[in-house]
Amino acid sequence: MPKKVDRHERRTRIADALMRVAARQGMEAVSLRHVAAEAGVSPGMVQHYFRTKDEMMAFAMAVVRERNQARVTEAVSRLGDDPPPRLLLRTMIATLLPLTEESREDGRVALAFLAYTAVRPEAGEGLREDTRELVAFMASLIPGPWREERATGLLALMEGLGIYLLGGQYTAEQAVAALDAQLDILFPPAGA
């Protein structure tokens, strides 16, 4: 009887290999041959599961999104049933920042993917939709006028802090302090 193959497991294994190559050497080093070697499979197997580099990249980014979503869901669940909006935003953003080794690796892949979509915009359609949804959710938590603009700024702060954390320009403490300062502007303490 032929061996049953788990298609999703194989695709995830290849995507994980792609992410390791991208995290170590940048997106320029991602090729069918390099990914196959990293995954320990033949280039033909990679081609069997992913017809194009864009398809392989989009799947790898989906894996990163799933990991981030799982981390955020776990962190938010620890806050209880009805956390205050400021605490919810802080928890979400701090969880998404590359503050741990695991999140740094995913952050390097996400950054490489963003750079890739800058020159291949068609590859980033799913990312654009995710961004719209995240901004809308953040805006729903922010008080006062210009909610969408403030949410856009908060997302830009998160992305910028992530880049500087990955590049070593900021420590985790500096990044979290900057996040807290911005949240204090959006959510002024009572009596301020």
Description of the structure:
It holds the Pfam family TetR_N. Keywords: DNA-binding, Repressor, Transcription, Transcription regulation. Residues 31-50 bind DNA. GO terms for molecular function: DNA-binding transcription factor activity; transcription cis-regulatory region binding. This is TetR family transcriptional regulator. With 192 residues, this protein is mainly α. The chain has 2 domains: 1-51, Orthogonal Bundle (Arc Repressor Mutant, subunit A), CATH 1.10.10; 53-186, Orthogonal Bundle (Tetracycline Repressor, domain 2), CATH 1.10.357. Helix content is 74%, strand content 0%. The chain is built from 9 helices and no strands. It has helices at residues 7-25, 32-39, 43-49, 53-77, 85-96, 101-119, 125-141, 147-167, 172-186. Helix 1 packs across helix 4 and helix 6 crosses helix 8. The longest helix has 25 residues, at 53-77. The mean pLDDT is 88.
Describe the structure concisely for a colleague.
It comes from Micromonospora globbae. This protein has 192 residues and is mostly helical. The chain has helices at 7-25, 32-39, 43-49, 53-77, 85-96, 101-119, 125-141, 147-167, 172-186.
